[in-house]
Every structure is written in structure tokens, then in C-alpha cells.
Amino acid sequence: MGTSVLTVADATTLRYVDETLHMEDVPLDLVARDVDTPCYVYSANTIRRQFERLERALSGVPHRTHFSVKANSNRAILQLLQGLGAGVDIVSGGELHRARQAGFTGRDIVFSGVGKTAPELHAALDASVLFINVESEAELHLVNEVAGQRGQVAPITFRVNPEVTVDSPHEYIRTGEKGHKFGIPFDDVEHVARLALSMPHVRLVGLDMHLGSQLSTFQPYAAALDRIAPMVRSLRALGADAIEYLDIGGGLAVTYDEERPIDLEQFAEGVARATRDLGVLVILEPGRFLVAESGVLLTRVLYRKRSGGKDYIITDAGMNDLIRPSLYDAYHRIEAVTRVAGEVVADVVGPVCESGDFMALDRRMADVASGDLLAVHATGAYGYVMASNYNSRPRPAEVLVDRDRFALVTERERIEDLVRREQTVLQWRSA
Ligand code: LLP
Asked: Is residue 196 a contact partner of residue 140, using CB atoms and an 8 Å limit?
């Protein structure tokens, strides 16, 4: 009995106390009884710890950390990070709205994304965002036009595609290689900069890059900064003398299975070295690093079954609640909330009518029975935000834990919510 430390990543926040998994000082079976399953549960102190670790490591570098809202856009989490002093990196008008609601001001917000619309650009200028990351020549024209209509000058940075090879675990989370859809192709940057300098309604205030996710060493950042740092100088020489930001994106790796987490000291040292003489404020856009390890998805075992010599554990959470295993073959550790004796090798599958609906395949894990609770680990990033209503399943609840307290932060969607916007009486218009 008593306390045993579970993993390195979760050491301080997830542990068994008297055979029951606790997040901080809250037993997770209590949360499941109170809120029902499936539900996401986040540890406030894990987020605080990750933010503080990053800030401590980077204390020698003039910088600001802008949380990438796409990883987890829950208002309670945004407010927590806002209180710690973070800014945000957003990619849509919806994320802008959430950020504003959470209390971020324009100067706290950088606006990224490969396909911003005119209404989104208007909203960004309404909010006086710190800068808009421009990703193409065509977008530059639109930003200049929209700002012109408003009689404003839009602060912009260029997202440059540094065209370096990145060793991310899945091809969908690499973004900075030659030919990717993101950013301005490296060789076009000078031309687009000349164009920007000739435009009355934009001001080039920085350069930006984002290489991909799950980067565990400084090496890809080093390779990219080797190409982008000289560009700061050459663009200034062209007349872009307002450049004051260098946004190096997100991508810091965490441990899901046996991956190497980012070595923060090595990372910070590398950033310091690469940016030392540039006279820029470094912007970072970590998403996963700040929130992934804070979250578990709680799900209840509905059934056990054997088919074709295989054991199945059928849970009440499906791919609509957590799509990472299905979409990226992502690994998430799964543990019984109340310890059980014995192990089994099983597929953990959801109720969705797709063979691709699984949390784990051929996983050696606790030999749980119908009614038992499971915790799917490290689901604080790209979990709830990627949930859908597929199979007309309401999206799960979200809960925040802070020491010995927990609060519902998003209520479970209701069945009525699913049809709320559908029209019952059709208003036909003639073509
Ligand atoms: N900045 C930009 C411009 C990005 O596109 C992203 C992530 C980030 C920052 C934050 O990256 P992070 O620090 O979280 O690695 N759904 C995928 C991840 C997609 C990441 C997209 N962009 C997953 O579940 O692994």
C-alpha cells in the first residue's frame, strides 16, 4: 500500500495512493463518479511546472513564451497560462475569440496559420495583435489591402520555410521541409520582403519559423536558425529596420512512450547562441510541452471480449474523443485507475463503428474488467481539441485539478446540443 511513483514524466502529479490513481491529491475514481466518463482531467500544477521549467531554462535569453492554443484551447487552461505570464499563438478567428475571452490582450497574441481569411484579419487588427505571421505573397497582398481599408499599418512577420529535414515521429507533424505547404519558400523571402517594404499598410517586424513537433534536440532548430538568423541581417540591410522579433515556433518534445524529451538546457543554450547578436526578442510557441503531460482521458471499460484469439477491451471513449492513436499511430500509456491483479495483451478499442477506432493495439496492460476505469495518459495536448461528434457522440467533459480540488471546466455535450443548429423547417430559396 502507500505511495509509489509511476513515471518520470508524471512523477509529481500522477501516482497511486492506496491502489487508486491520483492526480495531484485528487483520486481519479472520484472525478469519474462525479463527472462521468469519458472525461479529460488536467493537472494545473503540471502546467505550472512545465511553464516554469521552460522560463527558468530560458532566463538568459530575451524572449516571450506564447502558448500554442491549438494544443488545448480550454478557457481555464488559457487563464492559468495567462496568469503565469504567457502569451498565445493562435491560428484562427475562433482561437482569437477564446484568447480574448481568457483575458489576453492584443500584445499577448501572435497570429499564425497558412489560410487566414479577410474577416479573421479584420478581427486580428481589431484586437491589435502583436503581429500577423504571413505565409505567402498572396496573403501579404490581402493583409495590406485589409489594413489599408482600415487606415492601419499591420505589424507582420514572415513565416519562412527554412527547408530543413526534421526527424519527427510522424510525417503529419513535420512542417519545415522543402515543398511543405507552410511558410514562404526560403528562396522567395527576399523578393517578398522587397514587396512588403514597398507596401504602405504593412510593417515587417520579424521572422518566424515552425519546424514540426516532437523535436527532442536543438539540432533541427540549429540547422534552421543557421539559415534564418543571417536573413534577419540581410533583410535589415534591405531596409527592413523594424525587425525586432524572431519567432522560432513550437515543437518541444515530451515523452509518451520512450521518446527523449527535449533537453531544455541544451535547447536554451542553443537559442542563446544562435540569437545572441541579433538584437531580437525571441518568441516561442510551445503547445504540447506545456500541456500534454498535464492531462489524462478517463474512460470506463464497457465490455471484454475475445475474437480470433485476441483479447479486446471495449471502452466508452472512442476515436471521436481521442483521435491521436488512429490518426498518427500515437502511443498513449493506459493504466487502470484502481489497480488490478494480472496482465493481459489486448486491443483497447472504442464504440465507434470503424476498425480504426482504437486507443492501443496489442498492448500489455492491466487485466481490467467491465466497469473498471482506465486513464489514458499524456492527453492534455491535441486531445479534446481534436474531438468530434462522429457517430453522433457528444464530446466529453473537461476537469481541472489543483492540489486537492477539482472543478468541471467544460460540461459534457448533451444530445440536444448535437442537433441544435440543424433546421427543422427548411427555408428554401429559389436559385
Ligand atoms: N506553432 C505552429 C505554427 C504550429 O503549427 C504548431 C503545431 C505549434 C506552434 C505547436 O507545436 P507543439 O509545440 O505543440 O509541437 N495534432 C498533432 C500535432 C499538430 C501540431 C500542429 N502545429 C498531434 O496530435 O501530434
From this structure: yes
